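Sequence in, structure out. Go.
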Amino acid sequence: MRNEHKREIQKFLELGLTERETKVYITLLSKKSFTSSELQKSANIPRTKIYEVIAKMIERGICIERRVGKTKYYEAVEPKKALHKVLEDYKSNFQYELEKKKEITETLAGIFNPVYQKNKNFISPLEFVEVIKDKDHAQKRILQAFQNAKSELLSLVKGPYVCDTNSRVNQQVKEEKNLLKRGVICKKIYESTELIESVPVIEQFKPLGKLGSQLRAVESLPIKMVVFDDDMVIFPLQDVIKNPDELTIIIIQHKEMVLACKILFNYLWSISKPL
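Output:
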């Protein structure tokens, strides 16, 4: 096969012919007719495959067989006719496959649509609860909540902390500064005893007071908690069973739960002292 036909071979392949069919067809175009052995040698096709290739080409209408005595000769069908025949076969096959897939689609839709309709309105009782154990994941989720806050953030602050590294503290301080600049009300209540024990942590949050964050303290807090607007509350719960320094983050998006948490916060705020 000559090198100048490399591009043409690729085009034949794109049209749907195999590489062997393409080689045989281009070879057939080079003279009026060939015997099978001549084709096999000229197109460089394995002897065991040449009859299979020829039979397929005859079936596709791009090659014809003629007999002279006992000898079979093979000729190319005119390219314009042959290639249009290939194209028409492709259209027919495509249409058949399309109709077949349409039928399968209707069958599957008929089976599974009732299942979908039956279950689409089912709501898991825990759909509004998210549980996070990994601190990095928890930090990302908390920062996202800061970014989405629109009117109010209420916090009961006590250790252990998700922000247990300078990097995490700085990230949260940055987002809280942005929150305050947006005009979101920010109120925090700390445990008095912990303020003394966790001076480095509290020092990180002092700049927030200058931006309008309202800070207070009480002797004891019952729970760690952050309320965002009227929509969401986050509970960083201490692992009292395995490791007291580890946290399980519970995120609840439930208006009644948020309302109850606000009532708790407002009570503690009323008995707390300003920092």
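Check: Strands lie at 63-68, 71-76, 129-132, 152-157, 185-191, 214-218, 225-228, 232-238, 247-252, 273-274. The longest strand covers residues 185-191.
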